[in-house]
Amino acid sequence: MADNLVIVESPAKAKTIERYLGKKYKVTASMGHVRDLPKSQMGVDVDDDFKPKYITIRGKGDILKELRKEAKKAKKIYLAADPDREGEAIAWHLAHILNVDPDSNCRVVFNEITKDAIKESFKNPRSIDIDLVDAQQARRILDRLVGYNISPLLWKKVKKGLSAGRVQSVALKMIYDREQEIEQFKPEEYWSIEGHFQKDKDVFEGAFYGINGKKQELKTESDVKEIINQLKNKKYTVDKVKKRERKRNPAVPFITSSIQQEAARKLNFRARKTMMVAQQLYEGIDLGKKAGGITGLITYMRTDSTRISDTAKEEAKGYIEENYGKQYLGNNKPAKKKEGAQDAHEAIRPTSTLRSPKSLKDVLSRDQHRLYKLIWERFLASQMAPAVMDTMTVHLLNNNVEFRATGSKIKFDGFMKVYVEGTDDKKKEENKLLPDLEEGMVVDGKEIIPNQHFTQPPPRFTEARLVRSMEEMGIGRPSTYAPTLDTIQRRGYVTIDNKRFIPTELGTIVIKLVEEFFPEIIDVDFTAKMEGDLDSIEDGKVEWVKVIDEFYEDFHKRLETAEEEMEKIEIKDEPAGITCEKCGNEMVYKMGRYGKFLACSNFPECRNTKPILKEIGVDCPKCKEGNIVERKSKKRRTFYGCDRFPECDFVSWDKPIARPCPKCDALLVEKKSKKETQIQCTNCEYKEKTQN
Q1: Cα(422)–Cα(420) distance, rounded to whole angstroms?
Q2: Strand partners, 408
Q3: Same domain, 195 and 279
Q4: DSSP states of 151-179 as a string?
Q5: pLDDT at 290
Q6: Residue 424 pLDDT level (bands cut at 50, 70, 90)
Q7: Alpha helices, H only, 518-589
C-alpha cells in the first residue's frame, strides 16, 4: 500500500506522475473542480459579505467517494492541481473535503510534467496560497453577480437563454463597435504613382515621394496629372543612395495569447482547439517504452510570462550549436517582463529541445504534431541570433520630382533559418534587390503608372486580432480568451464569415441594453481595472470582499433601475417567403447555435426545420435538373451538393464553376490553397491559375 496520495486534475497526468514517483505514491485524479456554486441559484449571500455557497458538482459523488477512501489509507496527501488560480482553488476545495490542513505542506506545483520537474516539486511542497484562492473566488463571485442578475433580466425583457457575462460583454462590445465603424466609414480617394526604372539590364520599381525633398500626398487625378506633366524626359538622376545594415530580432517564446494568435494564422486553429491540443501535449503523450512511455512534451500552457529556465536555455544552446553552428547562438538576454503579467510560471516551450518535431511525427496526431512543431520552432528561434538584413534606399530625381526605391536582402538568416512569426497583414517582400547604384548615375524611366486607391474601413476581428486586442487592453486572462469567444458564438450574438466576427441582430440588441443600463460592465477601462484588482487580491494587497463590495454597491442600483425602466423587446421571426412542405404554414428564419436556419412558424405543432441553402449559380452536372448549393458538414466544413438531395447525390468539396471546361466540356472546380486559387477540370488535365 502506498504511503502517499497525490491528487491531480486529469487521469492522463496521473499515470505519468505515478510512474515518475514510484511505488510509495498513489496518484489519482479529481477530474477538475469537485465543488462549485450551484447552477440553479445565485449561490452568493450578498448580505453576509458575499459568502459563497459551494455544493458538490453533479456527477462528482463517486469520484469524491473514491478520493475519501484513498485518503483514509494514506499517511500524507499531496494536492497537485494545475499551477494557477483555478488549480489553487481546486486544491483548497479538496483540502476542505478531505480534512487536509491547508496550512500544512500539502500543495505541490510544477510547470512541466517531466521526471526531474516532478521530483524537484515534491522536495519543496508548500501550503495552499489563500491569496490565489481568494482571487479565483472573487472572479467567480463577480461573474456570478453579473451573470445571475443581468441574464434573468434579459430573459424577461428580450428572450430566454440569453446571458451577459463580465468579459464576454466587453468582447461583444468590441465586435459591435468595429461593425459600427465599418458601417459609418466613408472611403476617401487617394492616388499613387508607380515608376519602373532600368539600369543596364536591371529593371526595378520605385514610388513617387514628393517635390523638392518634401513628401506630397496625391488626393485627386488632377494632382497626379500635374506631377506627370512636370516630368521632362525619361532620364532620372540618382540623388542619394542610403545603405545600412538592419538587425531583426526573434519573437519571444509563446504565452497563452500569442500561441492562440499564431495557431490561428498558421494552422487555422480556433482558440478553443489550440488550448485543447496544447493540454494534450502538456499532460503527456505515449512515446513508447524505449522513449520513456507517457511524457509531457510542453510546459504549462496557461501563462502570461515569457520567462525561460536556465536549464532550458542551456539545452537549446547545445542543440543550436550542434545543428546550426556557433554563429546561430543568441545572446540569451532575458525578455522584459510584460506590464501586468503575473509571471507565475515559464513561457510555453518544449520540455526538451532534443525532442524535435520530426522525431515525434509517428507518435503524435496531425494536430498535435503541427502545434508541437510551432511551439518547438518558436522557442528554438527565440534562443537564436538575430537575422541581419542589408537594406538600400535610392532617391531618384527628374525636374525636382522625387521617386524612391527600396530593396533588401538577407545577409545572415539567424533565427529565420528555423521560424518567422506570422502576421495578420500582408507580408512585405524580404528579398527585393536593387541593382548597384551610386549617386550621380542616370537611369531610364521605362514606365510611369498612376494608380487610384480608396481608403479601407478597419477590418473585422478575427479570433487572433480579438485576442490580441483584449490582451493589449488588459481584459480577461490567459484562461478566459477561448471560453469567452466560444460563449458569444454559442449564444448567437455573433456569426463568423470568412473567419471574421459579425454581430447578429440578437447580439446588437443585447449589447445596446447592457450599454444603456450597465455601462461599467462593457467599459474597457473599468474591466481592465477589475482585472488589476483581482491581481492585487492574488498579491495579498487587498481584501476580496472589499473589491466586490465596491463593485456591487453601484451595480445593485443600476439593476433596480433596469428592472423598472428596461422596455420589453419582442424579436419577431423574419418570414422566409416560402411555405412548409409538411403543413402548409409559412417558414421563418430562426437563430441557432450555428447561425440562421429555416423553421416552420407553426412550431411546436410542426417541427419541420431546414438549413438555409445558398445557390452558387451552377446547374447540377449529374441530374441536370437541380441547382448546386453551398452546404455545411457536421464539422462545419463547407461543401457543395445538389438541392434535389436525396434524389440526386452529387457532392463536391471544391466549389463548381459556372462554365464548362474549354477542352472537354466537363465540370470545372475551384481548388484553393494559401498561395493561390487554381481552377481545374474534373475530367481532363485542364488547369488555370488565379492569385488569391
Answers
A1: 6
A2: 391
A3: no
A4: HHHHHHHT-TT----HHHHHHHHHHHHHH
A5: 79
A6: low
A7: 524-538, 544-565
Residue 158: pLDDT over 90: no
Q: Domain of 240? A: 189-249+388-454
CB contact at 8 A, 67 and 97: yes
Q: Please tell me the distance from the alpha carbon of residue 171 to that of residue 487, in angstroms, as a whole number.
A: 10
- The conformation of residue 113, written as its DSSP 8-state character, comes to -
Name the DSSP class of 26: E
Residue 145 falls within a domain, yes or no? yes
Same-domain pairing of 440 and 558: no
Asked if 24 and 75 sit in the same domain, the reply is yes
Are residues 475 and 541 both part of a single domain? yes
* Residue among 375, 357, 350, 346 nearest 295 (CA): 350
Query: What is the residue-wise DSSP string for 340-384?
Result: T----SPPB-BS-TTS-HHHHTTTS-HHHHHHHHHHHHHHHHHTB
Domain end (from 347, 382, 417): 382
Cβ-contact 204, 197 below 8 angstroms: yes
Q: Are residues 245 and 392 in the same domain?
A: yes
Q: Which helix or strand (DSSP H or E) is residue 600 part of?
A: strand 595-600
- Classify 92 as helix, strand or coil: helix
pLDDT band at 446 (very low <50, low <70, confident <90, very high): very high
Phi and psi angles of residue 135, each rounded to the nearest 5 degrees, phi first: -65, -40
pTM (global) more than 0.85: no
Grid cell for residue 605: 405543432
Confidence of residue 521 (pLDDT cuts 50, 70, 90): confident
Please tell me whether residues 245 and 393 are part of one structural domain: yes
| Three cell numbers, residue 351 | 520540455
494 plus 556 within the same structural domain:
yes
Strand 595-600 versus strand 586-592 pairing type:
antiparallel
Whether the Cβ atoms of residue 220 and residue 485 lie closer than 8 Å to each other: no
Burial class (CB in 10 A: 0-12, 13-18, 19+), 599: buried
CATH number of the domain to which 199 belongs:
2.70.20.10
- Which of 382, 399, 422 terminates a domain? The answer is 382
Is 20 among the catalytic positions? no
Question: How many C-beta atoms surround the C-beta of residue 311 within 10 A?
Answer: 10
- Is residue 300 a part of any domain in this protein? yes
How do residues 524-565 score in pLDDT, each as one tens digit? Answer: 888 888 989 999 999 999 999 999 999 999 999 999 999 999
User: Do 22 and 118 fall into the same domain?
Assistant: yes
Q: Which of 20, 78, 300, 419 does the annotation list as catalytic?
A: 300
Q: CA 348: distance to chain centroid?
A: 15
DSSP 8-state class, residue 140: H
> What total of structural domains would you count in the chain?
5
User: Is 681 within a domain?
Assistant: yes
Does any domain span residue 613? Answer: no
